[in-house]
Amino acid sequence: MPELPEVEVVRAGLSPAVSGAVITAVEVFDERSLKRHSPLEGAFDALLEGRTILGAGRRGKFLWFPLGDSAGPAGAQALVTHLGMSGQVLLRTPGVEEDGLLRIRLHIEHPVQGEFWVNFVDQRIFGSMAVDRLVPTADGQPGGYFGEVLASGASAASDDSAASAALVPSQVAHIARDPLDPAFDEALFFAALGRKRTGIKRALLDQTLISGIGNIYADEALWAARLHYEHPADRLTRPRMRELLAEVRLVLGKALAEGGTSFDAQYVNVNGASGCFSHSLNAYGQQGKPCPRCGTPLVREAFMNRSSHLCPRCQRRPRAPRATPAPAPPAT
DNA sequence: TAACTAACCTGGGGGC
DNA sequence: TGCCCCCAGGTTAGTT
User: Fold this and answer.
1) I need a surface site. Which of A22, A34, A170, A290 has the fewest CB within 10 A?
2) Quick count: other Cβ atoms within 10 Å of Cβ A329?
3) The one catalytic residue among A2, A66, A142, A169
């Protein structure tokens, strides 16, 4: 299940390969993988063919590739990709091998690396590709994370400032910045969290509050911060919020360093290799095993049509808020 | 307006 | 061996 670290691994793998390359042809094998593409923008393949890819950006779990040339009256555009639960973006040598469940193929011509394919493979079709217009960001900061290469101005596509400009695809604009984004505003996040009258895990999964966190890393961060998933977000003190955010960053950063989490073939990098973070999980999928901290068997509980993994001793269920005393009855 | 729920989707695994 | 059912979960439209 691709979350922020997995998507970032894909972005980092794609960026040097596609930046400065031209899309020469597009093949769509399953129209359902275009569910986020609006026909009002134009035909998906026609919008892409002949366009140059300027770079590879990411906000949370959304990836996008700003496009150069012939933007037309609609202004700057980008190819937006979301991996959903089972999406993969694979770099392939033409004709060498076929990927099962292939939904979309981009034929790419790079001035240095020559011709190759970008295959979008998706088993459950929760993922998608779309061409979307770029709109200005609300805070005037770059739309997302474009990596160290482009940020330092050394990318092959860095001549075109459209790649890293303060623009974001319109369908990504409502998504909050992720905690690894240099422009992530901690004060804004803490204030928004303090207004949420809901459980802390539901808040962490709310991509309009903080993006990039899914079920796996929410469970891991809550275990690390010793917080029960139902702990009311608005009852967290600032120090506890800071502690939780630090654990979120630690978990995401560690997973990123290990190439992401893979349980099966559902998540792979652009070369088809799996990540190693599943060996480092403390809570997610560890039900029945002893808590690495206190030895109490970890449990799995139903939560939001999915599951939550926690230590029943380290992560105590919050007590119900004390009832407000009823006003005294008027004296008679 | 905020919080919450259900639907989308399909390969794999378990039970019979 | 084959069939059926359940499970996984990110996003979003619809409901409360």
Assistant:
1) A290
2) 6
3) A2
